[in-house]
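A student in our group prepared the protein record below, which I am reviewing. Thanks in advance; the entry in question is below.
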Amino acid sequence: MFREIDAECYLMVDGDDTYPAEYAPEMVRCVLNRKVDMVVGDRLSSTYFTENKRPFHNFGNSLVRRAINRLFRSDIKDIMTGYRAFSYQFVKSYPVLSKGFEIETEMSIHAIDKNMLLENVVIEYRDRPEGSESKLNTYSDGIKVLRTILRLFRNYRPMAFFGVISGILLAVAAVFFIPILAEYIKTGLVPDFPTLIVCGFVAIAAIQSFFSGLLLHTIRQKNQSDFEMRLIEIEDRKKALLREEESVSYDRIG
């Protein structure tokens, strides 16, 4: 849909009658009048925890929100909401990679990473109509979302991701190496050559991890620069489409 439709504002809403339609105009105005790139319909700050009768869903939403806001230093109030409004720039620059419930997580992290303008609009949430069933599987889809967060953290913040791995590996190598070093200083003997060799390989793996993160961080910075140029192209395309629409409207009036 995003590839095929050109519009100044896009509105996404789940079809389960849990999101009131009266909030849509406010969300659209945020995009059209205040140039917000993504408007998040925030359920968690209003009635979600009282209306939603599935405690594991409540826990999962809170967990995902805290994880993303901590890892990506953001302040999105509701990561998993299915009620959002998008600008033309967001839609045409967002690569749709997920097929399931992970897509909301991907959208949020894409907007955070690309420094797009975000805004939270508090909405009322009502539970699903009686007789309807959610397609969300608490455990399997929850694991998919957490895996998506980890994958995107690796892709969008490679220096932090591989730096943590490097630090852990260095710590493990040091824990086992220090007793060997102390014994060598004391007696001049190496008591456990296999452990020393393993420590050396672990330290090499730590160094490799660090430089992998450094290399990927450099590539990411280049991609960020390319993305800014792409935004300029998207904005030019939007202006051309608007001029074309105005020309068609003028011809019809004439």
In short: The chain has a mean pLDDT of 86. Residues 177 and 197 are 10 Å apart (CA to CA). The beta strands are 9-12, 38-42, 84-87, 118-122.
